[in-house]
Amino acid sequence: MKKQKGFTLIELMIVVAIIGTLSAIAIPAYQNYVSRSEAASGLGTLKALITPAELFIQESGDLETTTTLDNIGTTGQANSLGAVTISAQNTLMFEFNATSSINGETFTLERDPDTGWGCTASATMPDVDGCS
């Protein structure tokens, strides 16, 4: 009698079950990783503007909503994940757009004359070092 070679149906079903279980664990972890990395990118874009904004404030008095972003050496679309704006006096904001997984979330940098620049994040923003 000739010996058959190959896998049985049960063996193939076990492999498919193992792959499904690993995928069920890996996909949410990957999505969390992507959200955190996008948040870090947006925060990095915003924090890179602290020095030019501070120089502008020292030379011109205040960073107003009428101040153009060109005056601090950037554009509103410096990062493809969102837009930088001057949202209030001495306040910079980065809002994520639809191309990111955290659409609508924001980081805000506000300058206090006594304590310097402080960062706040919207309530559902993923945890990122450097901003609460």
Verbal overview:
With 132 residues, the protein is an alpha+beta fold. The protein has one domain: Glycoprotein, Type 4 Pilin (2-Layer Sandwich). 38% of the residues lie in helices and 20% in strands. It contains two helices and four strands. The protein has helices at 9-47, 50-60; strands spanning 82-88, 91-96, 106-112, 116-121. A four-stranded antiparallel beta sheet has the order 1-2-3-4, covered by helices on one side. Strand 3 and strand 4 form a beta hairpin. The protein is rod-shaped and about 95 Å long. The protein starts with 8 loop residues before the first helix and ends in an 11-residue tail after the last strand. The mean pLDDT is 91. InterPro entries: N_methyl_site, Pilin, Pilin-like. This is Pilin. The chain crosses the membrane at residues 12-30. It comes from Photobacterium sanctipauli.
Give structural attributes.
single chain, alpha+beta, Glycoprotein, Type 4 Pilin, 4-stranded antiparallel sheet, 2 helices, transmembrane, methylation
